[in-house]
Write a structure and sequence with these properties.
Butyryl-CoA Dehydrogenase, subunit A, domain 3, Butyryl-CoA Dehydrogenase, subunit A, domain 2, 3 domains, Butyryl-Coa Dehydrogenase, subunit A, domain 1, single chain
């Protein structure tokens, strides 16, 4: 996988502007990603997938995010989508992969649709935002509030009952809405269904449902998502430093500066400081991924505390990597202002990624609550 990505590296970086302008990953690049196995990273061997370990798969996501933010993000979503699919009934899962493991699964996790029970299924209505990769997806999923006679149905925990579902991508309407500040090439449009019949077999319990296939990767979908986001953040931040170093190696000397950038002690100081932040983010992510994988192997990953630990890591890593992009952009000087500069693109991509619900700093409140609870338990 990593060798295949290295072979694609120069082409990907050369096509960054094309990716942004198209607001999606070009179809030929999607085909290249399929050919090197991007969509089968976490598909089980029982369905001809690679079934990589968590640390191995995250390393691949990081490598792609280092080359291009939009490519890294859509690849991350594809990996998450293949895990999302394991919550489906086995008959649906087998149908998804009936023609092989290189299937792109995407969708939206926001519960902005409704599903009204009808004979043998549900009548579904809604539009869902942020469906990254929808333009090249084979199957797409979303989350609905279950209703009865138009009123929300209450679940066993006193909250509105939510259910996820998956159907072929051709059954969806894609609304061209992705005009965003960053991650422009992810094609994260709205997807919609209008009074569509979806068979009951295509629905599943997103929070309490069990995977339809065995294996350590498939026992706790929600606990793994923050680490996927962290892999993207780390890769994009390393790529930002790559871009800054490349600029310095051109011999650029900024206006009123006494020396070229690479010979400036101030620049060297700042580069050393920024690099330390990236190394810290890499180390934090690696340690948290190893811990989660140990729990997966032990069969103990399905734990709310581990979800919060992973979220804490994702938030801190995203925040740190945004700081890296800000600092690199500032060091780039006036040349970083132009659309041709990769530094401004990295800045926008990392800021937009940090707005994701998984990585927003408001999630620290849940972490603090857990710290207090653990302290009380130890007393």
């Amino acid at each position: 996988m990593l060798a295949g990505i290295r072979e694609l590296a120069s082409e990907i970086t050369a096509r960054a502007a094309e990716i942004e302008a198209a607001r999606r990953i070009p179809s030929d690049l999607v085909d290249r990603l399929r050919s090197i196995g991007m969509f089968r990273l976490f598909v089980p061997r029982s369905h001809e997938g690679l079934e990589l370990t968590l640390p191995e798969g995250l390393e691949v996501i990081t490598a792609l995010a280092r080359l291009d933010g939009s490519l890294g993000w859509t690849s991350m979503v594809a990996c998450a989508g293949s895990l999302f699919a394991t919550l489906a009934r086995r008959e649906i899962y087998d149908r998804i992969y009936q023609n092989g493991p290189d299937v792109a699964v995407c969708g939206s996790s926001q519960p902005t649709g409704t599903a009204e029970p009808t004979a043998n299924g549900f009548r579904v209505n809604g539009r869902w935002p942020f469906a990254s990769g929808c333009k090249h997806a084979d199957w797409m999923g979303a989350v609905c509030k279950i209703t009865k006679d138009g009123q929300p149905v209450t679940g066993p925990h006193g909250k509105p009952m939510m259910r996820g579902f998956l159907i072929p991508a051709d059954d969806w309407e894609i609304e061209d809405t992705w005009h965003a500040a960053g991650l422009k090439g992810t094609g994260s449009h709205h997807i919609a269904l209008r009074d569509a019949f979806v068979p009951e077999a295509n629905f599943f319990d997103l929070e309490d449902g069990a995977a339809c296939v065995p294996g350590p990767m498939y026992q706790a979908f929600r606990q793994l998502l923050p680490l996927f986001h962290g892999a993207f953040s780390v890769g994009a931040a390393v790529g930002t430093i790559d871009e800054l170093v490349a600029l310095a190696n051109t011999g650029r000397q900024q206006l009123y500066a006494a020396t070229p950038m690479r010979e400036s002690e101030t620049f060297q100081f700042e580069l050393g400081r920024i690099s330390a932040g990236v190394r810290a983010a890499q180390a934090f992510h690696k340690v948290q991924a190893a811990s989660h994988w140990d729990h997966a192997l032990a069969g103990t990953l399905q734990d709310e505390g581990l979800l919060i630990d992973g979220t804490q890591a994702a938030v801190w890593i995203a925040t740190t990597c945004v700081g890296v992009a800000d600092a690199c952009f500032a060091l780039g000087g006036s040349s970083a202002l132009y659309e041709t500069s990769p530094l401004q693109r990295r800045l926008r991509d990392l800021h937009v990624a940090a707005q994701h619900a998984i990585a927003q700093q408001r999630q620290y409140a849940s972490v603090g609550k857990l710290v207090l609870q653990r302290s009380a338990d130890e007393a």
